[in-house]
Amino acid sequence: MRMVFINQPVADKERSKAFFTALGFSLNPQFEDDTTACVVIEENIIVLVHEPEKWKQFLHGDPAPQGTTESMVALSASSRQECDDLKAAALANGGAEYGPTQDYGWMYGISFLDPDGHVWEASWMDLEAAAQAGGINQPT
Question: Where does the VOC domain start and stop, copy by copy (predicted)?
Answer without folding.
Answer: 2-125
